[in-house]
Amino acid sequence: MDSITAFLSNIVENTDAKPSEGSGPSAKPGSVPRAQSLSSHDFPLMPVGQACDMGHAPDGTPLIDSRIFNSFEFFRNPYPYYRIMRDHYPVFFDKLHNCYYVTRYDDITTCYFDDEGFNTIPKGSSSGVLGNTQLELSGVEHRRRRNLYGQHLVGKSLDNRLHAIEAIGEEMIADWGNLDESIVQDRNGVRTVAIGKAFANEFPIRVVCDVLGFPKESRKKFFYWYNSMMSGLGGSETHHQGLEARQDLEDYVGTLVEERRAHPTYLYDAAGDPIGKDIISKLCETQIDGDYLSTEEITSNIALVVGGGGETTRGAILNMWYLLLQHPRQLDAVLADPETMWDVAFHETLRHSTPIGGQPRHNSFDIELHGVKIPAGSLVNMVDFSANHDDRIFKDPETFNIFRPDLYSGKLLRSGYRKEGKCSHMAFGVGPHLCPGAWISHQEAVIGSKILQRHLKNPRLNVDKMPKDFDGSLLPIGLISAREVWIDYDLN
Amino acid sequence: MSTEAKQAAKPPAYGAGAPDKDAFTGRNGVPLYTRNGNQNDYRTYEVYQRERVKEATDKIRPIQLISPEFIRNPYPVLEILRENYPFYRDWLGNSFWVTRYDDVTSIFTDDANFETRPKRWFYDIEDLGRDLGQEVALLTAQATRIDANVERIAREIVGGFKAGGGTDLAIEFAARLPLELLACVLDLPKDDFPKFVDRYWRMQRGAMWEPKSRQAGLGAVQELVEYFRPLLAARRANPGDDLISAVAMLDTDGAPATAEDLVITLLEQDHETLHGALANMWFQLLTHPEQLDLVKRERRMVKFAWLETLRHSAPVLTANRFARHEVERFGRLIPIGALLHCSAAAANRDPRQYKDPDRFIVGRKDLCQREPRGQYRADGLPAGVAFGLGKPSKHPAVPEDRPRSLYAITRDTATTASNVLLDVVPEVRLKPGATPALRSLRLGEMHTCWNLPVVF
Known about the structure:
With about 500 residues, chain A is α+β, with helices and mostly antiparallel strands. Chain A is about 40% helix and about 10% strand. Chain A has helices spanning about 5-15, 70-75, 80-90, 105-115, 140-150, 155-160, 160-175, 195-200, 205-210, 220-230, 240-260, 280-285, 295-310, 310-325, 330-335, 340-350, 385-390, 440-455; strands at about 90-95, 100, 120, 185, 190-195, 265-270, 275, 285-290, 290, 360-365, 365-370, 370-375, 380-385, 420, 420-425, 455-460, 485-490.
């Protein structure tokens, strides 16, 4: 065999798609296990917090293989890769996916404030399920639409509705005795409950339904539509279901709108006095440029409010309990002082395990950032995950620590907060597109947790029922929030 | 036109019809959106998509487009796309897939709206040198040396094959021939050949997003520049009829061509078609013995076998195009800078164009039996979309001062070499028990046969 043959044969050996049909990667005893995924390139599963080796440049700089973003390894353990990007590629151009990633806290803040330079006009950012919303507008157009319902989600109107949130939570827990074996199990005075299915999945939706003014009897339907729409967002195999649900919702809202135009409904405070129309009744009488909102627009607003307020808050509640139950000392501190510490724990949870990874933007002009030229119109991903784990801002960012001194956990500000060594986290973003549901989401998570605390005596994690990592430890919270948290507590 | 009429035609500075001073423009001066929120300028893909509930893409998961199965055999997934979602939005890959013949060729010929990004763009070395590939002197040198030497080289390679023996046709014939030919075109010293092959392959394979290969490729580019620098100087002093001499003697507006230019020119060459399609053609012939018999009986059919291979099993599966600006196509708004995968593999098996498209039929009646030149439907028949996957030549007929197209040269090379093989070992057949298959070594790389064991 001459050298050319040897060289070519060597190339053929080192390949992603092995010629043997059908056989997946096999784990030899003692070897690093590999994920059984469909990705074109399997990356080894690493201990949480460590990046696998994707090669090095001649000067020693670690390299980023774009295929990692599709891998299971990245899905469960994204933070070490974001650290490489922050330290070595503050603006990373992913040529496989034709997009840019911005990963440092300071850069992301700057871009979020620059509403004109980084616009939110969709270039296929969602898939038609939510519809045409103000998420995709800029400047005054955006502000005007956002203000239509924003006032219901903040300040005095929200304070006046806290009793309703509380009532919804109590109502759900009172129902636990009637739930299925697969959700609630009682044994020897110990109750095991899946707080996702039993509480967190539906609680935020019910709250949002209430603020919207959705009739109670259509809640079940609404919950189905919501789930279908959420799973249809990615435009994959459930896309059709999402679009259909959206269509059904729109048909339903159409008749509702007719009704509410004739007979608006109101929200009431704890004393039973009306404090104003609910969101749907408000939207029905709203005019923009002299025109009433169309059913399509109202549906889009409803979809956005629910879409924004459901999955995220659910994730926050589950992540918060999952993390606290793994850190008993911190849980004790929270349970001892619920009035202040649940707020603090909420913010640290959102920093440590952010429910929404980031936001897409498109730059309006040709720009250069950290030496990388970004042509106008490019997709630029602002990675909130990474900003919240930026050790230029938060010391020892991978550690969950509700006592950390460098996290601001006061009232959320559109301008963000960065004073006296304290910084706000990026889970809600900053600037003009700051999450309008941030305050209500905060209240739901905290009130919900306080209610849970009242009912769960001596809560502890049911480790047997929780999903495990490859080495038998608890599965880390990776790119998406904890799916379910099983809790044991004493009934007496 | 009178002065008054001219003034009237000028847009007013204020009021209705005045130009929007706040309009933002992107590349090429195309407005992106207007700051005052003018509804006429504001269209969303979402509104568009929602009217098309039936077009939801339930039949495929985007991860299938990067799965190992897809790398081995992309045709089943591509068929789903072509028959259900002809312009598929790949959310995972942030790109679009074009899969029907008419759609793919319409993108290829639409240079005004869609651009190709050269391999040097992947390396971020666009300033390193010029691509001289279209210089007539270079094309001539290449054509002359290939025509003069292809038969000799093919005989040298095949001369090692002995009746009663066996070999791996994919490596020893299909992969080796283009490399030997390239060394001959460059007239490299014999001892440098192995080292050159190593660098050349590293350079070609690195022009992707795979970071390790990219680093290795960048190193290879530097090594090749250093290697060619003295060679170029020597040929400048003492020119021959090879490609390096042609580069050295090139008359380009006062700036003589450099070693960097030569390396960039080599990088941008389409090196895969000859290797990949030669291997695929022999794979198809050996696994379809009746077709091989046909070709043996009538040697003019070798050319048709080559063309049918490029249709049925094109080595380069997709060509990427980027939208130069926001443009509406196939009922969708394509954003500026969007990545389009134009799938030749899917287009070449489009049943709208070819009867029984999955069958390998040498000399099929519904395939144009010459290369696309200026159009994709010469003689009223569709041509296979494979030749470097570019748009057709700017020259519908071959001009006097230019050599034949690279497509034709590649075809002649392949047929000559295959004829030599058939002359020397007419009894070539698949090694008993061998089950060769086509596959890519890596996502996005050429789809070809890498192991083709034969006996004579």
